[in-house]
Amino acid sequence: MFPFEFHNPTQVIFGRGTTPRIGKATAPFGRRVLLLSGQGSARRSGLLDKVTDSLKAAGVEWVDLGGVRPNPTLVFAREAIGRFRREGLDAVVAVGGGSVLDTAKAVAAGARYAGDVWDFFTGEAEVGDAAPVTTVLTLAATGSEMNSGGVLTNEATQEKLHLSGPALFPRVSILDPENTFTVPRDQTVFGVVDAVIHLLEGYFNGSDPDLPLQDRLVEGLVQTLLEAADAALRDPKHYAARARLMWGATLALNGLTQAGTGNTGFPMHMLEHPLSALYDLPHGAGLAIVGPAWMRHASRQAPEKYAQFAGRVFGLHSGSVSERAEAGIRAFETWCQERGAPTRLPAAGIAVEDIPRIVPHIRRVAEVWGMARYTAPVIADILKLAA
Ligand code: NZQ
Ligand code: ZN
Q1: C-beta of 182 in contact with ligand 1 (< 6 A)
Q2: pLDDT, tens digit (0-9, with 9 covering 90-100), for 62-111
Q3: CB of 94 closer than 6 A to ligand 1?
Q4: What is the distance between the alpha carbons of residues 38 and 168, in angstroms, rounded to a whole number?
Q5: What pLDDT is attached to residue 263?
Q6: Model pLDDT, residue 264
Q7: Which of 113, 121, 139, 144 is closest to 232 using CA atoms?
Q8: Which of 48, 142, 182 maximizes ligand 1 atoms within 8 Å of its Cβ, making it the mutation to test the pocket?
């Protein structure tokens, strides 16, 4: 096991009926906050009213800013930073999925920085100080509720990049599974795919071949997420299933399962972010396409871990190592496909002829992330496996 430091300061308040605690949880961080939400789901469900009632009861004033869109934009974040500064606010309360939470983090960092917030995404500046963020999560997917990262799209340059820094861990996150009862079927599936791929990025990209503890954590989480997804798809108000999805997705990217693996990067995310940026694809849908393609590419060199995955997660034990590796990848791909996620580029409306146009965008992410071995020909080969 590789040496590591694990420090996750986010206070998680989990369970049914916890939403009204957001006011008291936020009050220590400021008396005037920016209340950020998405394109209306939280307003329609009555969640936003619960949040404002709780803020009011705790003596916290808010400036209401809705409208964060999926694949959130830099333009919106810049406007929100301007608003935060003009109003002299103290903190951000994010009510939504990963897009709202990520925008909140960009606002928190940008509000305390004299330059342009995009500098944090391109690596021109490091996040130092940031305003406090608290969250009420509404979608099990990204892990943003308990990690220090955030992703935005710069529409002008068609880049989707991420910022991170210890100051960006949410101070408190309210995880009430009932707030995910209204998540539509497709977003439930995309969220699970995202969480599973977060786990597999660590699992398949570790440098140490002997990691039974991390392996079993990941395998158990993947199995649980896939089972819970089916229960939630059958009955969207299945509390136990929604609870497993919510906590499972949080654990998938809060640093726990990747610790000690000697992780060598997030190549499936490197391949996906440009697809979201260019085609406005939901992140989980893009991962269902590039995930299996990347796994096929990587398993050619070293199929053993993929065969282990096939056996332990899907109970596939017959055939040679390479055959079992392929069977496991196919099982995951089929799982996605049968639940309505696209698993090939054309299924998402992306023409195979577009591959040469997509490659330089992925190269750019590879460059920013320092993943030099993903040259243009390698990237094109992987994308062809998704054709
Ligand atoms: O905008 P509203 O009206 O809220 O609707 C949203 C949106 O249309 C809807 N939704 C969310 N909660 C709902 C709901 N609808 C009904 N009931 C609810 N309870 O779902 C749609 C998608 O929301 P979004 O926030 O975009 O989804 P998700 O949580 O999957 O976030 C995706 C974004 O996070 C980034 C992705 O790249 C993408 O931009 N990621 C962030 C990460 C991080 N911060 O650590 C890591 C991930 O790998 C990922 O890159
Ligand atoms: Zn992801």
Answers
A1: yes
A2: 999 999 999 999 999 999 999 999 999 999 999 999 999 999 999 999 99
A3: no
A4: 20
A5: 86
A6: 84
A7: 139
A8: 142
